[in-house]
Structures are given as structure tokens and as C-alpha cells.
Design goal:
Blueprint: H1 3-21, E1 57-62, H2 68-79, H3 92-98, H4 103-115, E2 119-122, E3 126-131, H5 133-140, E4 144-146, E5 158-160, H6 168-172, E6 176-177, E7 187-188, E8 191-192, H7 211-217, E9 232-237, H8 243-252, E10 260-264, H9 277-292, E11 297-302, H10 308-321, E12 326-329, E13 331-332, H11 349-364, E14 368-372, E15 381-382, E16 389-390, E17 402-412, E18 423-429, E19 431-432, E20 446-447, E21 452-458, E22 472-475, E23 478-481, E24 500-504, E25 507-512, H12 514-531, H13 541-552, E26 559-560, E27 565-566, E28 583-584, H14 586-589
Parallel strand pairs: 9-11, 9-12, 10-11, 12-14, 14-17, 17-23, 18-27
Antiparallel strand pairs: 1-3, 1-6, 2-3, 4-5, 7-13, 8-25, 15-16, 17-18, 19-20, 21-22, 24-25, 26-28
Length: 607
């Protein structure tokens, strides 16, 4: 770390204390992470998450954590520079001892489930319980049906027709069955660009942008100085990807492909399907994250479908493995889908609480979670009949333990005959969908950076450092390029709309969405971690908001925070509901303000 970086971090630390007091190539085949218990498990009572269900249907039974107020205070100190416990992370065993459900309660729950015919696996916060579908339905008084998938080419998950009835032994433990989740599956936050072909060159101000174009525009540190070495980025996914796409993408920019490890969960993801939005999602995620931090190792946590069941299994595996530093989630939903009006009068908000407690465990172990803020502007929810888009935000981005990443349209300077992508401007204006287009074909659908106010989570301490104009959790926290003007939009594709390019099914393809900005930010976060010594960083929102506060007091610019736009909320200077605190200046955010920057694309400083 440079002296200037230490000075910056010291300044942030003073603000934080005041606030507290107030690579290698993809081989063939790609390696698979072994599904064995880690030496950090700490007790024979806990085992690693099983790769596949022992028989039939997998459910996850969550038990509430102990000492949650103390845990939240611990994470605030662990994640805030200048506090006594800064970056003093827990192991999974230490987390269980102080905050996990009592082992006897977990054993009682497991024994009860075994009595109904389930095969059980105890984890830090609950039990995986596998049984034939008929056993699951009989035990919890439900009927399971196959929901319609919102992802083209993907099978919908099993969902319950009613709220489950908990067996008496589990009800006494305040257990929550989280696998019988929302009837509306998660949606990949990726859209095709409204273009029929990808130009052979990039000599235009609005792309299509490759990862090295973005790194020059956002003044990333030079590849020759840092590029994510020693950092590990986990990506949650519901599809496999093509090794050939990955290799072609990076070889196009004259860069060796970053290392990827496949980590199957609950049977692993379906094979690549060129007609599946889930396959497009994972393709974009690994190419964006790998391009942003090509020295990092990517770990692909892959589950069978877009259900709550699969996402719980992936997050549990991430916490128990304790093997990745940063986790990207590029899937969206709607907080309101878990409220009573959407579930026959029964609230399922306990599921979001259970997610939150999994994120808290990861934070306490030093894991940073980032998530796309959504692609449908301020209108990220829909009425119960799914006929009208309404104000709302998406989980997991709205969770206070997660960094929500919004998006913009980037415009770079145009130098005919030169491969150069220096920053010119950004905007964050929404695009209107044509009637019948967009999610569910609902009226009022728009495309743009997701943002707004949570109806679930209170205002976290770090958001008191800036003016969010709300008493609740608001998103996003930061933003990067997402592009605009998707297929189905009626907004004219003018000179201020842009998109990114990926290699998908062997073809150069244009993509849009916060599925692009979120994995890119995960890579930038890896660069910051490498610059600060290589350690984990936990909930980086505490650092982000302290940096924003320092900038507001006259410090060095850290974010582009005057981006014009409107996603249903108008943009304002400082924090807003479109770009959060703004788009980071790469070298400054990575604590290398005086270091060399990424030069022209494909140059040695920016391959």
C-alpha cells in the first residue's frame, strides 16, 4: 500500500470512528471444488453442504440466530476502518459458537425431520432435509407445483400452493422452512441489446464495450500493478457456461482466461442452453468479473433453478465453504412477493430474514456480497395480479449486508482510428417498454437502474453518513455501466445509449443490465482488496459510505456523483436512488490514487 493510500485510509478511519461513536487459463475440463468438510468446520456435528439431494426434494429448515444485535455491532466494527476489531474475521466454527442456533436445537430439529422420513444434514444455521415429494407435502401440509419460469429455456421451480404448517417440534424452535418460497422465481438481470449486429471495431462513443474499454473509462489501476491476484470471487448461478465462449472472449483482448472452479450445489446447474436467460446470465457474469479482475479466481456456485430453495443452498454452501472473498448475485425479484397479499394472506417475510442471517454470517467471516440493483428502475415490483409495475426494490440487493450496484449509460470519447475509451460522460435515464413487453407483460414497465426504498429493512448505520432522504434501507449503493435501450423498448436508441459485448454460444452478443455492472464491481472490489494487502473486507458498505462522507467534506473525488438521469426518481447531486453514491474512480476506490492507470484497451497496462 502506498503512503497516499495509507493517508486516505487513515482519513476514512477517523470518519468511521466518529460515526461509530455517533490468473491462469480455464483448463478442460474446468476443475470442480470437492464437496468435503473444511478443516475450519470445527465440529463433527456439522458437515459440508451435500452436492445432491439424498432422495427426492430438498428443503432447508432455518433456525434463528442468537445474539443478533451483538452480531450486527461486531460486523460494523469488523468492516469499518479504524475500529478495534477491523478485519478480525470469524471462522465458521467461531460463528456457530457465539451466534448460531444451539447445536442441541439443531439436533432436535434434525431428529424430528428424520422421524417423518427425511435424510438430514446440519449446517451452521439450519438443516437440509431431503425426502420424496409426497413426504414433503404430507409433513408440511402443502401441495407442490411447477411454477412457470421467467427465464426463457429454463424449467420453473417447485413451489407450494399454500403456507406450510410446521410440525410441533419445529414450531417450538421458531423454525422457518425457506425452500417453500415465493411463487415468483428469481429473474436473471440481463437483457439483449436492441441491436442486430456487433460492429467489428469499437471506434464509437457508445460501444459496444469490452471489459478493457470500461477499465480505461473508469480509470482502473494499471494491470501491471494490480489485477486481483490472490482474491477469489464467487458467482451464484443457475446454469453452466461454455468454456469455449470464455476462452474466446478473453483471447479476443489478448488476455489469458482467468481461472474458474465449478462448485455444484444441490445437484448442480442445468447444462448450457443457448435459449436460456440463465445461461446468458452466467456467461455475462464470469466474463465481466473476470475481465475486471483477471488475476482473481472465480468460483461458480451452480444450483438447479431460480427458486428460493436453490439460492438458500448456494448461500449456505458459500458460508460453510468459507472459500471466497467476494460473492456476486445478478438475479432479481421483488420484496413484495414475500408479503401476505402475494401469498394467500400469509406473510413469507421470514424468508428474507433467513437470507439476511446467512449474509450476516458471511460478513462476520469477511465475505463481501454484491448484487445487481435490478433492471426496471424505481418500478421493480408488480401488483398481486402482475398486471401493473409499481414502486419497489429487489432482494438480495435491498439487504443491508449486501452492496447493491446500479447502472448507467457510459459515453466515451471518440478517436477515429484509435482503440481508446476515455471517459466522456454518463447518464442514467430510463427506457420505456412497449405495451406487453418487459416482465410479466405488465403495464408501466421501464428499463433502468433499479433503486428505491425497502419495505423490509430499516436504515442501516452506514446510511446515516449521507442524506438518503429515508428512514429505511435504500438502494443502490454504487453504480457502473449497465447500458440501455433493450429489445422491446420504445425509447429511440439515441447517441447516449450503450451496451456491453459478450461471447455467447460462440457469437459476439450485446447485453444490458445491472448483471453487467454488479460483477464488474465485484472485480473492482477484488482490486481494492489486493491493494489493501489481500485480506477480506466484509460488508464494504461501511467503507463506501465513509468514503462518500469524506468526499462530501472536501476530500479527493471518489465517485462520479452528479450523473443526470431518471428511473422514476430524479437524479440529484450526491446520493440518489439511481446510482447511489455514484460510479467509482477506479484508482481512487482501489486506494491507489497516484498509481498508473489502465491505458488503451489491449495495451500492456489494460489487457
Amino acid at each position: 500500500m502506498t503512503n497516499r493510500s495509507r493517508t486516505m485510509l487513515a482519513a476514512v478511519a477517523l470518519l468511521a470512528l466518529a460515526a461509530c461513536q455517533g490468473g491462469g487459463n480455464v483448463s478442460s475440463p474446468v476443475p470442480v471444488m470437492n464437496n468435503v468438510a473444511s478443516t475450519t468446520m470445527g465440529s463433527a456435528d456439522y458437515v459440508a453442504v451435500p452436492k445432491t439431494a439424498a432422495n427426492g426434494i430438498r428443503t432447508y429448515i432455518h433456525l434463528p440466530l442468537r445474539n443478533t444485535t451483538e452480531l450486527e455491532n461486531l460486523i460494523q466494527q469488523q468492516s469499518t476502518p479504524g475500529t478495534p476489531l477491523y478485519q478480525h474475521w470469524l471462522t465458521p466454527a467461531q460463528f456457530r459458537t457465539s451466534y448460531g442456533p444451539a447445536i442441541q436445537d439443531l439436533k432436535t430439529a434434525a431428529a424430528s425431520l428424520q422421524g417423518y422420513g427425511f435424510t438430514t444434514t446440519i449446517t451452521s444455521q439450519g438443516i437440509f432435509a431431503d425426502a420424496p415429494q409426497a413426504t414433503v407435502e404430507r409433513t408440511f401440509g402443502i401441495h407442490l407445483r411447477r411454477a412457470q419460469s421467467v427465464s426463457a429455456g429454463s424449467m420453473g421451480p417447485l413451489v407450494a400452493d399454500r403456507a406450510p404448517t410446521m410440525p410441533t417440534a419445529l414450531a417450538k424452535l421458531n423454525a422457518q422452512i425457506t425452500s417453500v418460497g415465493s411463487a415468483h422465481p428469481f429473474m436473471p438481470e440481463v437483457y439483449r441489446a436492441n441491436t442486430k449486429e456487433i460492429p467489428e471495431n469499437r471506434y464509437g462513443p457508445t460501444g459496444p464495450y469490452w471489459f478493457d474499454d470500461l477499465k480505461q473509462a473508469y480509470t482502473y489501476p494499471s494491470y501491471l500493478e494490480i489485477h486481483g491476484v490472490g482474491k477469489t470471487i464467487g458467482i451464484v448461478s443457475t446454469s453452466d457456461f461454455l468454456d469455449g465462449d470464455y476462452k474466446t472472449y478473453f483471447s479476443h483482448e489478448k488476455l489469458a482466461s482467468p481461472s474458474v472452479i465449478r462448485r455444484p450445489v444441490s445437484g448442480g446447474p442445468p447444462p448450457f442452453n443457448p435459449n436460456s436467460s440463465d445461461s446468458a446470465e452466467v456467461t455475462v457474469d464470469i466474463q465481466q468479473a473476470g475481465g475486471s479482475a483477471p488475476g482473481a479466481t472465480l468460483v461458480l456456485y451452480g444450483a438447479p433453478d431460480d427458486s428460493d430453495s436453490s439460492f438458500f443452498a448456494m448461500y449456505v454452501a458459500i458460508d460453510e465453504d468459507n472459500a471466497v472473498d467476494i460473492v456476486n448475485t445478478s438475479f432479481g425479484s421483488c420484496e413484495l412477493f414475500y408479503t401476505a397479499p402475494y401469498n394467500g394472506g400469509t406473510s413469507m417475510l421470514g424468508i428474507l430474514t433467513a437470507y439476511h442471517q446467512l449474509f450476516l454470517q458471511g460478513n462476520a467471516q469477511g465475505i463481501t456480497f454484491v448484487a445487481s440493483s435490478g433492471d426496471f428502475g424505481a418500478y421493480g415490483c408488480w401488483n398481486p395480479s402482475l398486471t401493473q409495475a409499481i414502486l419497489g426494490v429487489t432482494p438480495s440487493a435491498s439487504d443491508p449486508a449486501v452492496t447493491a450496484v446500479g447502472g448507467t449509460n457510459l459515453v466515451t470519447s471518440y478517436y477515429p482510428g484509435y482503440l481508446r475509451s476515455t471517459y466522456h460522460s454518463e447518464n442514467a435515464f430510463d427506457d420505456k417498454f412497449a405495451p406487453g413487453q418487459g416482465p410479466f407483460g405488465a403495464a408501466g414497465n421501464i428499463f433502468g437502474s433499479g433503486g428505491g426504498k425497502s419495505v423490509v429493512f430499516a436504515k442501516p448505520p452506514y446510511q446515516t453518513l449521507v442524506n438518503t432522504r429515508a428512514s429505511v434501507r435504500t438502494i443502490p449503493d454504487v453504480a457502473l455501466h449497465m447500458g440501455g435501450c433493450p429489445a422491446g423498448a420504445v425509447t429511440p436508441c439515441g447517441p447516449d445509449r450503450s451496451f456491453d459485448v459478450a461471447v455467447f454460444d460462440g457469437q459476439l452478443t450485446g447485453f444490458l443490465g445491472t448483471s453487467l455492472s454488479s460483477p464488474e464491481f465485484a472485480g473492482l472490489q477484488a482490486l481494492q482488496g489486493e491493494s489493501l494487502g489481500g485480506g477480506r473486507q466484509g460488508n464494504v458498505n461501511y467503507l463506501i459510505y465513509n468514503l462518500a462522507k469524506a468526499e462530501s467534506l472536501g476530500g479527493k473525488p471518489i465517485f462520479h456523483n452528479t450523473t443526470p438521469g431518471n428511473n422514476g426518481y430524479p437524479s440529484i447531486a450526491g446520493y440518489d436512488y439511481i446510482t447511489g453514491n455514484g460510479e467509482p474512480y477506479g484508482t481512487v476506490y482501489a486506494f491507489r490514487p497516484n498509481g498508473n492507470v489502465a491505458g488503451n484497451p489491449q495495451a500492456p497496462s489494460n489487457p
